[in-house]
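Example A, followed by Example B.
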Amino acid sequence: MNTYLTFDGNCREAFEFYRSVFGGEFADFQTFGDGPPDMPVSEEEKGRVMHVSLPIGSSVLMGSDSSSFGPPLAVGNNFSLSIEVTSREQCDELFAKLSAGGSVVMPLGEMFWGAYFGQWTDRFGINWMVNYTLPKE
């Protein structure tokens, strides 16, 4: 299980700081401008960070900037627990169980980055993400 942080436009600055503290290199770094052409982002948002990951020991610190098509950012809801699973079935099971009584932010589906992914807030107000990396064809 890893931590996913959300920022309001300063994700790049924060992760450069974290990298200076922990060392290492980013495993992923993409802006919203790197997304597919039909992704609904404004020109102003294209330079914002869509996803960054920094391995730290046996964990990964991940993050992004908020966007106009996601939930509004507020201190206290700017983090999620992210789980990488080993099968689509495991993804379905965790999503169903943990989202019961909560609210779905992004239904499970195949994403442009090659994963089966979903996002929700559980009935206790905790934000979750589950990701299954699809096999390469």
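Example B, a separate protein, is given below in the same form.
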Amino acid sequence: MDVGLAGKRAIITGAGGGIGRQTAQLFANAGAAVFSNDIDADAIDAARADIPGLAGAVTDMGDSAAVTTFFEQAVSHLGGLDILVNNVGSAGPTAPVEEVGLDEWNACMAINLTSTFLCIQAAVPHLRAAGGGSIVSMSSAAGKFGFPLRSPYASAKWAIVGLTRTIALELGRDHIRCNCIQPGPVEGERISRVIQAKAAAEGRSDNSVRDQMAAMTTLRRFVPPTDISALILFLCSDYGASITGQSLSVDSGMEGYGPATDD
């Protein structure tokens, strides 16, 4: 099926694994030129080896100067820009709010929110020059329900929703669509690390936390990364041409994260 992405130029951050890598693969399969990054050199090298035509760089997206350099490299390589997917993120600390250090708060905001803002800010002139395009950013179910013991992460993901709706209003006249996705627990290494940290903070087993998370969804299961990447592809394709300013959940019917413990 032709989704209208052949020849499109896309930046997809964080394509070393998980959702980002799946999305880069789908875009490449659809004929798009993709530039990406990861903080892990081995991960981005492996992605480049497996995905034909994928270009990328090692980048710490929590460093504003590195984000600027990455974006300049990406646009120069692609020769312009039609699509920006802000996928990169960090789980941040797992602790009660009174125990979260300011340095931990700032680091979580830098990679989850500030890097998204900087990439959008850098992308807009190029998207305008292309006659329009699509921006998709990654929020979270934590930006919909809140997430006990994860106050910096949840705050950043709520902010992504506000940022998305605001820039959609600003950029609609330029034919630039802006949406965000709110995944629930997504299968992979990242959710396993989140589960381990939450289990340690609450004095519970990993399996207990995993089972609790699954039980908070109506489908009683975690989300495959491919389900997220498929929605990103749709939003950036011709089929998503009338969708903007939306926060779209892919969360197996999540009903909330519940209290910090089962007590």
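On Example B: The first helix runs from residue 18 to 29.
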